[in-house]
Design brief:
By secondary structure, the chain is of the alpha/beta class. The protein is built from six helices and five strands.
Length: 199
């Protein structure tokens, strides 16, 4: 039997009651149903200083930056749900990725990201649903050697989209989130089963 893909799911929002955390829960459940092992991480539990090269030189990687990097390293794929802040990424998400991208002597470049797979969704009260953040997040992840699956989903009017149990009121929206998660599981499983090519 093939080993279950290991996925790390996290949101780009730390807010209690975040729409993106709700969307993340739907995706995580769908990924588990598709056969993945899913770890949920909350960036609120991993506060980090803003990336500063002088701070890194003086003190090294902050403890929570290393903890987040270790989580990324130990998983084969990522399911990310992010809000859109001023047409781009939230600072907390960008900062966490910036820290995790930092290497140390003897370590392979971008070890937390290279060869990993990601599935992206977004939620926003606005009419575009966070679509613009998905463009920026996809470009950044691909630049640090993450394979981002083509399927993505942006949930518009997120403040009206969820029922009291946390499910999406619109079955088509629910199915779209689940489709991104299933595709992420499928691609991650296929890549992990393929023989590694020589470099």
């Amino acid at each position: 039997m093939a080993t279950a893909p290991r996925l790390l799911a996290f949101a780009g929002s730390t807010r209690t009651g975040s729409f993106n955390k709700k969307l993340l829960a739907i995706g995580a459940a769908a990924a588990r149903a598709a056969g993945a092992e899913v770890t949920l991480a909350d960036l609120r539990d991993l506060p980090m200083p803003l990336y500063d090269g002088d701070l890194e030189a003086a003190e090294g990687m902050p403890k929570n930056g290393q903890a987040f990097k270790d989580l990324l390293i130990s998983h084969q794929g990522f399911f990310i749900s992010s809000p859109e802040y001023n047409s781009s990424l939230p600072g907390v998400l960008k900062n966490a990725i910036d820290w995790a991208s930092r290497g140390k002597p003897g370590e392979a470049p971008l070890v937390a990201f290279d060869g990993k797979v990601a599935g992206l969704v977004a939620a926003s009260p606005g009419a575009l649903g966070g679509l613009r953040v998905l463009v920026h997040l996809r470009a950044m992840l691909e630049n640090i050697r993450v394979l981002v699956v083509p399927q993505q989903f942006a949930l518009a009017h997120a403040d009206e989209a969820f029922d009291p149990a946390g499910a999406l009121k619109d079955p088509k929206a629910q199915a779209s989130v689940e489709a991104v998660a299933r595709r992420l599981v499928d691609v991650t499983r296929r890549l992990s089963a393929a023989p590694e090519s020589p470099r």
